[in-house]
Write a structure and sequence with these properties.
Strand content: 5-15%
Shape: globular
Number of domains: 1
Structural class: alpha+beta
CATH class: Mainly Alpha
Number of strands: 17
Length: 546
Amino acid sequence: MSNVRNTSRRALLAGVSGSVFTGACASFFRPDADTGNSELRSETLRTMKRAARFMRERVAYRGGYVWSYLPDFSRRWGEMEAYPTMIWMQPPGTATVGHLYLDCFHATRDEFYYQAAMEVAEGLIAAQHPAGGWNYLHDFAGEESARRWYDTIGRCGWRLEEFHHYYGNATFDDAGTSEASQFLLRLYLERRSSRLREPLERAVRFVLDSQYENGGWPQRFPRVAGEVDYAPYITFNDAVADENIKFLLMVYHTLGDERALAAIRRAMEIFPATQQPAPQAGWSLQHHHETLAPMGARSYEPLSLATHTTAGNIAQMLDFYEWTGERRFIERIPEALAWLESVRLRDDQVQLQGRHYPTFIEIGTNRARINHRRGSNSASGEYYWDYDVARPITHYGQWRPLNVEALRVRYTLLSETVPVRQTPSPLSPQHNFRLPRFFTTRTIAVSDLNAAAGDGATEVPATERIMALNASLNAEGYWPTPLTATSNPYAGEPPETPSPGDFAQTLVGDRFDTSPYVTQTPVTGISTAAFIQNMSSLLLSVDSGE
């Protein structure tokens, strides 16, 4: 749930609506296999294999990956600094690399990449919670080591409150479980390997078992004793429901699993059920799992309605109408659009260019709640909100760039007709479903803070770009990348007395804060995101089209 730099973590299969079946899976980019230069193609294939071999042999730990590494491997990071025995599930982590290897296999038909993907699968299987999902990270050194990490590095990450408690369960947050589940499904479908069947079934059961009867999903599952936060609430934030619906649609169409279809239909019901009454006809990041009332989450996610969540849910319900033709999914959308317009800032009120919508809106008053912080670390610091736009926190966007007009146009077009589909609904077994051959060449809104989000290749690069990537792979076998993201090493228990300095608008507090931040003096290292992005460019240039 981090929201660093105000970037969504991923949009692997679709855009803002998250609709995997409104064109995203029905049509995918298939480049011309003929580059016109066989010598360059051969060189590119060699580059790809050298880079992949380095990652497999030097970087991977039991088939898994984190986000970035120093060249001597003395330090490594996922969202936070990791132990050498850890792998990370949050994209662009272990499963994202697995998707890449499978994409390379599809492009080249080289068994080397299929075996690389199977190695990733083995790491994920070992890291899979018995209930079927995945935590943000997994420590192969065991529970005691994982708890020690949470009690030190995790607990001292001031702004990363999701790492302040270790519950020993799995999470839907940040698409970690979704990404791993989708990857196992893709890989299983490749050859129907018996090794993958049971882990895949556990992943499917996890999504089914965790769903409330009302259709919503919690942030974490299973419930455990001692939970003190927002884990059980129905979660829309970070596309939890959206990602689960996508995965279930994939399961339904590829495996013919009717359980998935029933769960999708339940999930659709939670969207209109949680929409608030006019004039504030929006949604919150989370809703209570029993009362359906809006709820707060982390201390800088106050009880409120959320404009970006509302926009996403509007788009999702427009999809539902297209899928079903049931007008109940769109009958209250004008109220939601009207509410969004009611909180839109005038041009002279905008604090950040292009961001006209405050993130959090107070229930009852319709005023923007702005988050701030004081202190210097997880012990001395605290978050608070008020109505003052001056000096807000910077690690979580307080204003959003929403295309409400596009939602309005789409609603107007749909509301005037009953959907007429050229193909059957994605809820029908007759839907012309197919998975994309490539996942990592689509829009990938993930970043390890060292590679810009959304830089994945979506078309065959120019020859000059291909040549530059071939030439820039170093002798060891990786693309040297400035590691702009770093963190303070664990320095012991943080003091309750604030350190000198102003940390109100920084990504990190004092030296006791282990949160990641962007440094002005980066060192050169190994970036998993850069590897994925560069390889996705190269695989398009060598695609055989098979």
